[in-house]
Amino acid sequence: MASDKPGGRVLLSGQLSASAVLHGVLRDTARAYPEALARTGLPDQPDVFRRSYPDRLPHFEAARLAAPGRREIARTAIDELRRHLVWESPAGAAPLSELLSEPVEPLPLEVEKFTGDPGWEPGLLYRGARWSSERFADLGHDLAERGMATAASGDAPFP
């Protein structure tokens, strides 16, 4: 399938839900590394996992991080996830990983000359007030005082 067809989209294979894919990825990864991930409490049933994944994910990740082969475990999980991603377009469907590994020519570099007026200043609106870049540190201090940001955010350098 040609990968340059317009109108495509990324889908999960087999019309699985995201939680079913996540369950499968974690289950297959745990099976590949039982010594490291056996006690994560990952349920066998996808529907049980869907109801409990907010509680289960931290246990899984803590066990992965504590494992000597944590990088290999992460790579296995990524490889498992890649198996579930599909590119679908009017020309058909194909595994996304295959399409991303096809050799292609680099995109041409395009240089655009700025034709607008110089002097754009970043800023944002927060709680009805406009905060210019010169006042970002003040905003950080204000947020820290109200417990909405760390104290270090008020000390962050801005150009």
Spell out the key features of this protein.
159 residues, alpha+beta, 2 domains, two-stranded antiparallel ribbon, 5 strands, extended
Characterise this structure.
- The protein has 159 residues and is an alpha+beta fold.
- It folds into 2 domains: 9-100, no CATH class; 123-155, no CATH class.
- Helices cover 43% and strands 13% of the residues.
- The chain contains 6 helices and 5 strands.
- The protein has helices at 18-32, 34-37, 46-66, 70-82, 96-100, 136-145; strands at 9-12, 85-89, 92-95, 123-126, 129-132.
- The chain has a 3-stranded antiparallel sheet. A two-stranded antiparallel sheet has the order 4-5.
Written as H for each helix and E for each strand, in order along the chain, the element string is: EHHHHEEHEEH
How many structurally independent domains? Answer: 2
The largest β sheet comes out as: 3 strands, antiparallel
Q: Percent range for helical residues? A: 40-55%
C-alpha termini separation: 48 Å
- The portion of residues forming beta strands comes to 5-15%
Instruction: Point out poorly predicted stretches.
Output: none
Rounded Rg: 24 Å
Which class of secondary structure composition applies to the elements?
alpha+beta
Main-sheet strand order equals 1-2-3
Instruction: Report mean pLDDT, rounded to a whole number.
Output: 86
The backbone outline, from C-alpha atoms, is extended
Count of β-strands: 5
Total helical segments: 6
